[in-house]
Amino acid sequence: MEGLEVAVVLGLAVLAGGLANRYLRVPAPWAWLAVGIAVSFVPGVPEVALPPDIVLYIFLPALLYWESLNISVHGFRFDLRVIALLSIGLVFVTAAAVAGIGTLMGLAFPVALVLGAVLSPTDATAVAAMAPRLPRRIDTMLRGESLVNDASALALYSVAVAAVVAGRDPSIGEISLSFVWAVVIGVALGLVAGYALYLLRRIARTPSLAATVSVITPFVLYLPAEMAHGSGVVAVVSGGLLLSLLLPRVVSANARTLSFDFWRVASYVINGALFVLIGLQARSVVETYARDGWQDVLLLTLAVTVAIFAVRFIWVVAMAPTIRLLDRRPSQRDRRVPFRIRAIIIGGGFRGAVSLAAALSVPALMADGLGFPDRELLVAVTFGVIVLLLVGQGAAMPLILKRARLPRDDGSVEEYRLALTTMVREALDHLDADAAEAGAPPEAQRIVRERLDETLAKAGDPADRAADAAVRGLLLTAIGRKRHAIEQLRAAGRIDDLVFLRVQGDLDHEELRLHTEAE
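^ thats the sequence. predicted structure below, dont judge the formating
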């Protein structure tokens, strides 16, 4: 299938899944996966393979960068210990468990370790789609885990694949050295590249130039680390976290809105395309094992799926008492969460496109020219595990969330009020001096003071927030009336198209501001 045809098929499939998510209330990953599976069996549709290089070198850096801009850096640091245990310790334990299962079921140990490395990282997109509106701390833990664990898994994956290709067994020392080197180089080059991009953003201040720099940022962060045989994943995450702290100082509101709108849409399309591409592998897997060997594939898939869930369950359950035993500080008590909350972390172990892309990236040949052993089996089992975990844990997630009795996350509301009142008071304190410096007339100063006082009063009065919701509703209705009026003026030829677009843009920004205030 030509590239344009693939793009059209993927675009329509992502759209169909999005419509199913909205109107049928089907979780978005389920909808995209189902559409991909259905399309793969449509007669006359050629096989569409998941391009591993595009996933690992284009899609993955883009998604990691967007996630790093939208995660709480403070929360990430606060729970860094838990995130490290999940994204490093759990990855290696899971890979070892899967390798053990694979070896018991007839795979050579290096090949089984490849399978373990492939299936050890979690997928952040599935977690966010299956469990929206989690408390900030749990959300940060799960997203932080999925940001970092790709680096652990891919470091292990590269060692395991190299060992199979060379016809030898991987050693613990080789794995440890590879992981440490990948992380150290990734962090160092990610921070260096991130700061260099920050300096570039100070020069490229116009919205179009700033947006261009934003588009290339994840790849500029990723490439140097990969060329130095470090972890591009760690580089993107470390550089992205640094930029999330530095960019507000130099990026204009217009450029920031343009960049964030681009990445918001791009991440949605990329995530949808990845799940559709996973589904599109269904026909290839079925055709390969429909007549012979499907029992072995099914048995290994079920055994590995159970092992992944069991290891995650045991690890998360044991993690809390272990931390309490080793850390007796009073501050540790503030970090504790009950098991009903930790159950969400247990249920958040979805797998996704990175796992399948890694499986498909396994080379076809070894050093001696023979085929890579059980390569098709690795791909089939990876596909099956992704589907089983996505469907099984996804179906259980609503019950887990219900039993968790999640507390209201009032912290963000209070912090929002604090930020609002502090910045308004700062503006009021300097209003007289600012007006004198600008030579503003007293009437302009009075109007600005009244607006700031009104904002300050609303921020401090909880009763006014309920009234604000009604006000926002009326304002949004009024915007709809305004749109109708300018459309009529345009249709009657009384205003030019360029004037229409300018006014429409003003109304769009006003509507977005009202929606943002409601969140």
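The mean pLDDT is 85.
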